[in-house]
Amino acid sequence: MAAFPFDVVAFDLDGTLADTAPDLTAALNHTLEQLGYPVVPAGDVRHMVGHGAKALLRQGLAAGGRSDEALVERGFPIFLDYYEAHIADESFAFPGCEAALDELAARGVILAICTNKLEALAWRFVDAIGWNRRFPVIIGGDTVGVSKPDPAPLLATIARAGGGRAAFVGDSITDTTTARAAAIPCIALSFGFHDRPPAELGADLLIDHYDELIPALERLAG
Ligand SMILES: O=C(O)COP(=O)(O)O
Ligand SMILES: [Mg+2]
């Protein structure tokens, strides 16, 4: 088989590798209930993910008409405790994702994760979903001191994965902005968590299913 055109493929986590909205929604709503504020429908939470847990909490409170940083600080440990204990109760890999990861690994590609989740939570997630052998490198929102859309976490992910030719796969404007700033080619998924129409994400290519990932990477390199 011909050598694959990328040495490293880095992935965003929430809304890209897995649909984590059910467990994020449960953790957010548990926190809002504990604080005495209205819960948020799961469909709304999908558009709030991608900027880290505090941003999710901030948006969850804002949906109920509150914007108060002291409440975010009070809610943060409640959210983390609950989420850590229920991190993959209902989350699931997007259809075709594991087969695409298997194929990339079989073709010698190093797989890595660059997420705005706290790094420890990202490791816990991959462990809980049975992926700890798939990803030798995970960079979280707290790993390098700045989070996406700063290019530094993505560049660090690629460097720790051994460098070489790299591509990034993500679902949000945060991811496409990060990739552009890092000058790394980027594929976006039309089925992830978005706060705008996928065609407006500005990715180099947009795919509708994981079956399209490997041909898209080949095209991107072409
Ligand atoms: O918002 C988060 O906690 C992380 O989201 P991401 O994996 O899409 O970067
Ligand atoms: Mg995402």
From TrEMBL:
Keywords: Carbohydrate metabolism, Hydrolase, Magnesium, Metal-binding. It comes from the Bacteria. The active site is at D12. The keyword Hydrolase applies. The keyword Zinc does not apply. GO terms for molecular function: phosphoglycolate phosphatase activity. Pfam families: HAD_2. It is an enzyme of class 3 (hydrolase). It catalyses: 2-phosphoglycolate + H2O = glycolate + phosphate. Pathway: Organic acid metabolism; glycolate biosynthesis; glycolate from 2-phosphoglycolate: step 1/1. SUPFAM superfamilies: HAD-like. Mg(2+) binds at D12, D14, D171. Its cofactor is Mg(2+). Its EC number is 3.1.3.18. Belongs to the HAD-like hydrolase superfamily. CbbY/CbbZ/Gph/YieH family. Specifically catalyzes the dephosphorylation of 2-phosphoglycolate. Is involved in the dissimilation of the intracellular 2-phosphoglycolate formed during the DNA repair of 3'-phosphoglycolate ends, a major class of DNA lesions induced by oxidative stress. NCBIfam families: HAD-SF-IA-v1, PGP_bact. This is Phosphoglycolate phosphatase. It comes from Sphingomonas natans.
